[in-house]
Amino acid sequence: MTVQIRGQRVVLTPLTPADLAWLVHWERDPAVARFAGQRFDSLAAACTWWQAAQADPRHVVLAVRLPSGQVIGDVELVEINWGRREAELRIRIGDPRYRGRGLGRDAVRAAARYAAGIGLKQLFLRVDVRNVAALRCYRAAGFRSRGRFTAGRRKADGLADMYLMVRALDAGPGGGAGIGPAAAGPRAAAAD
């Protein structure tokens, strides 16, 4: 069974090797690199990253797709701490034709439901204070600022002020939407 997390307008599915060329392409976009940095510059480097992510029980990588199946972005849960039941969220809508349309917010909400469904209690993220669109998206998806700090990792223009934002997760009635550790795959169930 393939994991599918449905939002109102997007579907999250496991990222596949066939999707990696899109990630490499998006990382060459200056608008993406400005705030997200650049992790890899070749398909081979992206494949190495993807293989490492698949082997890591503390890392979940999902494609953001339109209902048609077209991949328009990606979502990651990284540094999953199964003891504290929290993870860092990363997201990008890489395809510029779909930015600014609320699809990122829908993907963040779907990812939060998925995270609650696999037993996480909290998500956090780091966002550049200059990234107004992302801040608007995260706040609308229930994240709140917890602090401000300076960081320089993967930033082409040096140090940047960042907000740490947090969202508590509540499974509530049906909050996991039928998605639990077993549906997330053996890595999540075994790591729990």
Explained architecture:
This protein is α+β, with helices and mostly antiparallel strands. The chain has a single domain (5-183), classed as Gcn5-related N-acetyltransferase (GNAT) (Aminopeptidase, 3-Layer(aba) Sandwich). Helices cover 32% and strands 29% of the residues. Strands 1-2-3-4-5-6-8-7 form an 8-stranded mixed β-sheet, sandwiched between helices. Strand 3 and strand 4 (71-81) form a beta hairpin. Helix 1 (20-27) packs across helix 3 (43-55). The two termini are 20 Å apart. It comes from Thermaerobacter subterraneus DSM 13965. GO terms for molecular function: acyltransferase activity, transferring groups other than amino-acyl groups. Keywords: Ribonucleoprotein, Ribosomal protein. It holds the Pfam family Acetyltransf_3.
Average pLDDT for all residues: 83
Termini gap: 20 Å
- The shape, in one word, is globular
Topology as H/E string?
Answer: EEHHHEEEHEHEEHH
The counted number of beta strands is 8
| CATH homologous superfamily annotation | Gcn5-related N-acetyltransferase (GNAT)
* % residues in beta strands: 25-35%
Helix content class: 25-40%
Query: Strands of the largest sheet, in order across it?
Result: 1-2-3-4-5-6-8-7
CATH class: Alpha Beta
Query: What is the CATH architecture term?
Result: 3-Layer(aba) Sandwich
Which runs of at least 5 residues are low in confidence (pLDDT < 50)?
173-192
CATH names the topology as Aminopeptidase
Number of helices: 7
Global structural class:
alpha+beta
- Rg, rounded, reads 16 Å
Total number of domains: 1
Largest sheet: 8 strands, mixed
Domain N-acetyltransferase: 10-170
GO molecular function, one term: acyltransferase activity, transferring groups other than amino-acyl groups
Pfam families: Acetyltransf_3
Keywords: Ribonucleoprotein, Ribosomal protein
